[in-house]
Amino acid sequence: MLLKRKIEELITPVIAEEGFELVELKLARYKRSSRLQLYVDSNNGVTIDDCARISRAVDPVLESNDIFTYAYTVEVSSPGLDRPLTTARDFRRRIGERVMVYFNDSGLLPQEGELVDADDSHIELQKDDNRSRYDLINIRMGKVIF
User: Fold this and answer.
1) Domain count, the chain
2) 20 to 30 A from 44, CA-CA: which of 36, 50, 97, 106?
3) What letter would DSSP give residue 85?
C-alpha cells in the first residue's frame, strides 16, 4: 500500500525524535474518513502521556503533507505485552525475559527459555544449563511468558 508506506516514511523520524520506535502502523480507510493506528515502543515503555505527545507531534506532519482528503483520527498506543514476537527487533527488545518460541516446521516442538541473545538472524535461549541457538528464519513467532 503506497499511502501506508508514505505515512511511515513521514512519521517514523518524528516518532524517533520523541524517543520512541514505530513498531506497527495500521491504516483503515472508509468512505469519508480514515483511522491511523500507530503502535510505538521504547526501552522505558509507553505511557498515556507519551501517546498523546506522539499524536500531537505526528498530526502537523500529516496535515502539512495533505495525507488525508477527508476526516481522520490518529490512535497511538503501545504494542501490548502479549504481542507476538516476529522480527529480530521484537526479540532484541525482550532479551532477559522468558519466552516460548514456535517454529515454522510443525514437527518441531515449541521451546521455552530465557532469551539471552538476539541479532538479525538468530536468537539464543537459556534453559537450566542448556543454551540453544535458533535461526530466525525458522521461527514462526515467540511469546513472552508472564
Assistant:
1) 2
2) 36
3) B
